[in-house]
Amino acid sequence: MTTTNNQPERFDTLQRLELESTIGFEGGQDDGAIIVWNIETKEPVCGSAAQHKSAGITYCLAASKQDECQFFSGGNGTLRFWQLDIANRKIRATDINTGIVKRIVKCMTVSLDGTILYCGTTSGDILMIYIPANQFKCIGPEKKKYSMGITTIQALINGDVLIGTGEGKIHIAEKETFKSLKSAQAMGEITSIALRGEGHMIFIGTDRSHIYKINYADWKMELINTCHNSPINDIAFPFGTSELFGTCGFQDIRIWHAPTGNELLRISEANKTCNSICFSRDGKMILSGWDDGRIRAFYPETGREMFSINDAHNRGVTAIAITNDCRRIVSGGGEGMIRIWQINPNSRELLATMKEHKNAIVCIRINKSDTECVTASLDGTCIIWNLKRFARNQVLFENTLFHCVAYHPEEYHIVTGGSDRKIGYWESTNGAQIRELEASKSGTINGLDIDNSGNYFVTVSADKLVKFWRYNEGDVISVGIGHGSEVKKVKICPNSQHIISVSADGSIFRWKFPKSTI
């Protein structure tokens, strides 16, 4: 699926025709049109309504194998054959009559000899169309339909059909009856299938952001890549370790191997969202805050739950941190409260509740001596707390919604970012602002991190950019471009070799730390 964010029209399907100079677009629900474009000039050749006014939405396209100027379209109550007339700049449609059979076609493919069109439907069966006569031939299977509909389809060289279903199964269907010959189970709805060579290797994509590989000969499925399929809310590195990092989002926490990008561990909690994650300094615990109001701790080796603090916050745990001695947890909630928890061998004890913030806590940072912490809130304040007296030391006021905060390694400065698109430097002793930098022209500053030397820091924002700064000079020396949506968080690894950024579309980017600064 190809979508555009800058135009009112939405392109739901793109099909490359065999003719080198043209490409077909199918408009979405907004305009319901099929447009043919010239690739070289990037200009439209011609267009037409994708379906009759009485028909439903058109969902898919397929190019002919025999004639480079022919293609097919299908959708809700519509199935059409198209002839492209480049000389007269027109496309002409011929409806394919399926008789009393009424289906919603979601995917289609043409057999390798170019004589048969296979159409996968939401009903879990396949329509077979004889292309030379544009004639409906048959429908199958007769009995056991494919559960949750057919979402993607590919013709194989031996005449069989490879199909993916909404329940996450890959089937090889027999070419005449469409009965399943063999199948494999993936996680999530199958969204795409790609064949390597003549089909000896099959790649499968799912809506859970999984990519699988199947060898046709032995029919063994292997997970080769995966990522989050929803916004990533936080990142954390274990203390002193740059090869591993953790991310969290909807339903799970994942531990990654940074050099290879492989997922090492997944901790799942059904229908819950993890808002914040951190590692204990001794590496024995993964701490996490969830939207159901619980703090959960896990063993990093197995992902098994170590303990859970129920009802830690009544509007969800939105931020969490652990002291360097691994004895106390500092948590922040959606209601604006800061709570301190004592970790005992067999229990967890609430030591204090600090009520100053009026809105959700978004970030917590603890100093090296465990005597102070700073919290950022959406109420427009950052508060420096005394962790011995459990009282406020300083308040930082600004006309913004703070989204991130960090201590300078020397701890004489605090750096903040928020909705005013500016980076603020503050004195940690008296809360006075000493510097302000414009970090973005259009987007909220969602995350920042300072390297261990204190000479550089990195920021991410809603404008999809990752910016690398010199701390003392306050200037940008490198910009990372690549994210396709709002960047949510960023972290510099402990050895300052690479930078990890995560975004709202579930992607994780690993950037090289600029060599000139190492």
TrEMBL record:
Pfam family, one: WD40
WD repeats: 310-351, 354-388, 405-436, 438-479, 480-518
GO cellular component terms given for this protein: axoneme; motile cilium
Keyword Phosphoprotein found: no
CDD domains: WD40
Entries under InterPro entries matching the protein: WD40/YVTN_repeat-like_dom_sf, WD40_repeat_CS, WD40_repeat_dom_sf, WD40_rpt, WD_repeat_EMAP
Localisation per UniProt entry: Cell projection, Cilium, Flagellum; Cytoplasm
UniProt keyword list: Cell projection, Cilium, Cytoplasm, Flagellum, Repeat, WD repeat
Superkingdom of this protein's organism: Eukaryota
Role summary: Microtubule inner protein (MIP) part of the dynein-decorated doublet microtubules (DMTs) in cilia axoneme. Important for proper ciliary and flagellar beating. May act in cooperation with CFAP45 and axonemal dynein subunit DNAH11. May play a role in cell growth and/or survival.
Family: Belongs to the CFAP52 family.
Subunit-level organization: Microtubule inner protein component of sperm flagellar doublet microtubules. Interacts with BRCA2. Interacts with the CCT chaperonin complex. Interacts with HSP70. Interacts with AK8. Interacts with CFAP45. Interacts with DNAI1. Interacts with IQDC.
Protein name per Swiss-Prot or TrEMBL: Cilia- and flagella-associated protein 52
Organism for this UniProt entry: Adineta steineri
Organism lineage: Eukaryota, Metazoa, Spiralia, Gnathifera, Rotifera
